[in-house]
Amino acid sequence: MGKMNKLNIGGLIIPVPIIQGGMGVGISLSGLASAVANEGGVGVISAAGLGMINKELSGDFLANNIAGLRNEIRNARRKTHGFLGVNIMVALSNYGDLVRTSIEVGIDMIISGAGLPLDLPGYLTPGCKTRLVPIVSSARAAALICNKWLSNYNYLPDAIVVEGPKAGGHLGFKFEQIFDEDYALEKVIPEVVAIVNEIARKTGKQIPVIAAGGIYTGADIARIMQLGASGVQMGTRFVTTEECDASSAFKQAYLDAGKEDIKIIKSPVGMPGRAIKSPFLEEVEAGKRQPKTCPSNCIRTCDIRTAPYCIMAALTSSLRGNFNRGYAFAGSNVWKTDRIISVKKLMQALEQEYLVYTLKTEMATC
Prior knowledge:
Largest sheet: 8 strands, parallel
CATH topology of the largest domain: TIM Barrel
Number of strands: 14
CATH superfamily of the largest domain: Aldolase class I
Mean pLDDT: 91
CATH class of the largest domain: Alpha Beta
Oligomer: single chain
């Protein structure tokens, strides 16, 4: 009674229904992903920016990205027998190569957003066991993906992540929607669950809905699962763990952040994003930044002629703790972080908080 249910993603039985969010440019690599997988959740490696942090592999960013991803997946596999995923942004210029590499190396699941992954099932190869999990921000997007996949590939998502406007990083919302309650995760989850349940009724395939964005405690997990979610995706909470692949200076930026330090920014990618303010962002707002060259050609939607800065260079700098040349993406609850703990202790705390909340809820309804 009160214990978290296991999560079934395309026949993979995840002991703890928590997916660690994929955080790009070196924040979630094999170290963090394997630690989460070892504790029963899904550990996720981000494919974004690996070419910048693996420059020693070759002189080519896109080639480094692929080689770096292959290395990270294999490194994680050596450290865990648990479940591993890769987060691949649709907007990445070598999206297809990264998807093919992940499938070739045998990743358990691909989680894909920052655009609609309408052709993702087309990359599956005969006999491969990789599960496909799109990220959406609305019931309309969920229905579109399901219908397109079913029509074009006779395939349905193995799970759907619904990311609300309180998430960190790039947001699938317009600026005016971010603080509008009509777009809140608590409102969207039941809408997506209703759509997905209707599709499941017609096709016989169960599609779990995973809630993401602003989920911080075990009580948060319990509340959102009471609205129909089968599990959650959490990113910010895992940054302040010992195993997170970011530098100690990056983690300290999370610990130091107050409510007033959280900003909604306009990313060169063409989407709004949530980040912690930094000297670099202050210069951007003052119009003092302008890239002269594009070092990576990493994102299709970024135009060097109009971009105020190179996002890949900025996030690489922040990874190393240099906030004069970069900034840290973070979720809306980053100000609550107060210490560095192990992934094991974090997962135990989340499960305990979940248990306490559900027991109180059950007692209140008796």
